Amino acid sequence: MAAILKIKHGLRIVALAGLTALAGAAVGQAYDDDLKIPDNPTIYGTGDPYLHKATAIVNGEIITATDIDQRLALVKASNGGQIPAEEMQRLRLQILRNLIDEDLQIQEAKANEITIAKEEVDQTFNRVARNFKREPKDFEAYLKTQGSSAQSMRRQIEAELAWNRLLRRRVQPFVNVGEDEVRQVIKRLEEAKGTQEFRIGEIFLSATPATSEQVLANANRIMDQLRQGGSFAAYARQYSEASTAAVGGDLGWVRAAQLPSELAQILPQMQPGSISAPTAVPGGFSIIALVDQRQVLGADPRNAILNVKQITINFPANATEASAKPKVDAFKASLDTLSGCGKVEELAQSIGAEVQQNDSLSARELPPQLQQLLLNLDIGRSTPPFGSLKDGVRALVLCGRDDPQNAGAPSFDQIYQQMEDERVNLRARRYLRDLRRDAVIDYR
Fold this sequence. Notes:
Layout: E1 2-6, E2 12-16, H1 17-35, E3 54-58, E4 61-64, H2 65-78, H3 85-111, H4 118-131, H5 136-145, H6 150-170, H7 179-191, E5 196-206, H8 212-227, H9 232-239, E6 250-254, H10 261-264, E7 279-281, E8 284-295, E9 305-313, H11 321-336, H12 344-351, E10 354-362, H13 368-375, E11 386-388, E12 392-402, H14 412-438, E13 441-443
Antiparallel strand pairs: 1-2, 3-4, 3-13, 5-6, 5-8, 7-8, 9-10, 9-12, 11-12
Helix pairs in contact: 2-3, 3-6, 4-6, 7-14
């Protein structure tokens, strides 16, 4: 006889009680003899390990605690596991909101007869795996070791693909960018030639006068985590309420005048790679990361292509700073006597060093502290020694440099595309806001 177990969220599981009883009668005595299981055991702990309890139901679609745990594991992995315990609950709530949005996006796409084929999801998943320098199967195993799953990532991929396709059908055709608008942008670029332009990342948290204090405290906690090495893109995806959250907060290249005056004032004081304190802006607070900066339509010296040779001296595993100092000092002294790139191999052989050559190194790819050193070097000269005892102490010798030419203005089509994307993103944000407003969401 079948017994029906009714679960809180409405699902039904049918257990074949009669069959179970029959099987138990056949083997019960063996269990008693071998395992000594008591007839009336006390169960310590609650919950069925195979029951995925609903955390929220979005228009009938269930989001479980397991869904949240697996997505949280992805965020932790992208941050090197450096998420303090006090941040975990807030992050779980944000992930739940993201999962709700994903359900709404997939549901709205299906309502408009848009479905994403499994093959499309697999193609994107495989590209992500390659970005991690892994084969898809190896990547699935890696995700499991992190406490996540390929299914969780595929769900996120499906939502992004479905939403983008929906926007192309329902939003993009109704976004207009006039030719005159594009020409005005080109004209302003020409007028701004030589001025500074900034590559910005943003995390925007909305606030009202009533919630301002609480939101600022949360923004400060996020900033602290970022300055301790947290991934800006990961935090932007999970916390930012701006339309750029989907691309890790990337605002692209902007001039200070295009930003709120509160942010424009702090940009000149920042260095590439730095992160601002939370700053009050209209509607909330912003944390910005200065990724890079350049001159509008100007030649950026960091785009120079360098021909370098690297000389490296290595140390035994038990070396200390004190024991290594004489060798490092001798290395520095020998670099001071170097008379051109042609002598690098000879010098390296005399001190037992290794040599590697790169004839197409972009200065921009180097750490900021090395960029200026190399750009100010004369051909044939070397940088001071740098590195560590563990990885080796090294120096770069400049053998040649191809300086960049002045950058031309972006093309008409490039500017048109950027303006269209910005307007689509703005409407997409409103679209999702309306879906949230009309959804039936049952939190458990």
